[in-house]
Each structure stands twice: as C-alpha cells, then as structure tokens.
Amino acid sequence: FGIRSTGKSKEHWESEFGLNQYWAKDVKEIGAKELAQRAVSELKSQGIDEIYISFDIDALDESVASATGTPEPEGLMPHECAIMIKEFTNEFNLTGADMVEIAPLVGLSKEGSQTTLEVGAAMSALMIEAMK
Q1: pTM of the full structure
Q2: Which of 40, 53, 61, 128 could form a disulfide with 75 if both were Cys (CB 3.0 to 4.6 A apart)?
Q3: Which residues are paired to 72 by β-bridges?
Q4: Where does residue 101 fall: left (phi above 0), alpha (psi -120 to 50 degrees), or beta otherwise?
Q5: Residues 107, 71: Cα–Cα separation, whole Å
Q6: Three-state secondary structure readout of the chain
Q7: What is the rounded CA–CA span in Å between residue 99 and residue 41?
Q8: Over the stretch 86-129, which tens digit does the pLDDT of each residue have?
Q9: How far apart, in Å, are the Cα atoms of 105 and each of 10, 15, 30, 119?
C-alpha cells in the first residue's frame, strides 16, 4: 500500500511476483478501509491467518514524513494508514512488524524531522498494540 513510483510498471511487479499492489492513488480513490477489506479477503481466501507488517515511512506524504530517503508528494496520510492497520489487525494475528526508512538527519527541517519521528512512533505504537 502506498507506492507512488517505481522503475517498472505496476503490472510488471504483479505478474512477476504474483501479488497485488495498492498504490497511494488507489487508496485516495477507493478508500483505505475498502482496499484493506479487499486485501483481507484476498489473504483469507489463501488461508492466511497471521501477518507481518513492514511499514515503509516513505509511503506517507512528504508533508508528514519528509525525513526519509525518498519523500514524495501525494502519499498516504497517517489516518489512512491507521485505518488499514486496524482492518488488518482486527482480522489477523499480527506476529511482527517493522518500521523502515525514518531518517531524521536527512530531514529538510527540524520540524520535518520531528513530524516524521512522531508519525513513525504513532504507527509503530498501533502495530505494537496489536501484537498478542
């Protein structure tokens, strides 16, 4: 969830690795809850009963996560991510999680670094809370 750019087309990655990608524009157009529910259905149909969430902070919009290696506009907002995390963790056991690409020393401003750290902490707290 949250991809905005890649070296190859969405179709390439989906056919090459047999997975579905939900780009940030999909989340904006369809909605975080709806897309998460679709993904939950897909995973359940495959017999999945536990998940691991890897959260890449650069999926977020640069206005809330500028202290990362590749800040970009038109990304996800924290509330959208929180909705998706809750949808997944209400349906599956969360066995682990990670938060990657927070880079406060590369932030363009002290405020941007602080905001990125705060948002990363909030998303991490949601995932930690969900682990049983």
Answers
A1: 0.90
A2: 61
A3: 61
A4: left
A5: 9
A6: CCECCCCCCHHHHHHHHCCCCCEHHHHHHHCHHHHHHHHHHHHHHCCCCEEEEEEEHHHEECCCCCCCCCCECCCECHHHHHHHHHHHHHHCEEEEEEEECCCHHHCCCHHHHHHHHHHHHHHHHHHHHHEC
A7: 24
A8: 999 999 999 999 999 999 887 678 999 999 999 999 999 999 99
A9: 31, 37, 35, 16
Residues 106 and 71: their CA atoms lie apart, in Å, by 10
Supply angle C-alpha 43, 55, 6, rounded to 5.
85
How far is it, in rounded angstroms, from Cα 47 to Cα 49?
A: 6
Q: Which residues contact 73 (CB under 8 A, 6 or more apart)?
A: 61, 62, 63
| Sole residue written with tokens 């940030």 | 24
Dihedral over Cα of 10, 13, 14, 20: its sign: negative
Tell me which amino acid residue 90 is. Answer: N
